[in-house]
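Exercise 3.2. Students should predict the tertiary structure of the chain below and write it as structure tokens, then compare their answer with the key that follows.

Predict this chain's 3D structure.
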Amino acid sequence: MLPGPTTPFLSLQPLRRVLALVLTVLLSFGLSACAGGQPSQKVLLSALALQIDLTQRSIADALNLSSADGKPQVSRVRVESQQAMAIGGSKGLHLTGRFDWRLPGDPIRVDSAFDLYLQRGERGQSWRLARPSGSSDGANQDWLIDPLPLKGESA
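Answer key:
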């Protein structure tokens, strides 16, 4: 019996399946490596709590009031968009979304929008809160950079 025209195709089918599986695995590793540069949920919670605390202190100072005791409690962060950008000559991210928070001793939890800037650490292993502060030369954005509190450290 002579081989028909479909025989070479049938012999390549298992090879194609293996090749497709290998390419799928390689592609998934490549995509997960790209996601490694994103801030964790813990970093986002810490950055938002610090941003609220710094804003409260600034308002209290401007009005000659005492600032609230304790750290704000932040939960349920939902990132809606993120954009890579340069912040003060370093890599950074601009994130927007929504989160829940409440002040210490206050039973009411508030759902709020956020606009957050995070600067990547020099070695790429940490994040800092970045806040725009105008432009000293009229061309470039100036930034106030605050380190995020370490675990167990109060802001």
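Discussion points: The radius of gyration is 25 Å. The CA atoms of residues 46 and 118 lie 11 Å apart.
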